[in-house]
Amino acid sequence: MSYIKNMEHEKVLMLANEVTVQKGQVVSKTLAQNPHVSVTLFAFDKGEEISSHDSSGDAMVFILEGTGQFTVDGTEYVLNPGESLIMPAKKPHAVFAKEAFKMLLTVVFPSAV
């Protein structure tokens, strides 16, 4: 059984090559999803966005290509390739593509009691 899907196993991969920017779209590719963690690749075309929302888990982004703008609880962050940001659970956050960019999103959810 594979826990990571939509990717070849036992092969060296460039994550940025696993998702493609498409004009006027936000493209996502889910790699893992369960009650404890979500791992998703995203590709944003320039000017695309995900409006403000929150999550029950901590969300960590890692920029693969391009530049992304993230607003967390009213504070703006601009991230470039190789940079990461953790957006704490229950804090509103939004994403905007200052230019086309790709990112890896990992969300870790609280354990059920």
UniProtKB/TrEMBL annotation:
Keywords linked to the UniProt accession: Oxidoreductase
Domain Cupin type-2 as annotated: residue spans: 41-107
UniProt GO MF annotations: oxidoreductase activity
CDD domains in UniProt: cupin_HP0902-like
EC code: 1.13.11.64
Keyword Calcium: no
Protein name: 5-nitrosalicylic acid 1,2-dioxygenase
Native organism taxonomy: Bacteria, Bacillati, Bacillota, Clostridia, Lachnospirales
Gene coding for it: naaB
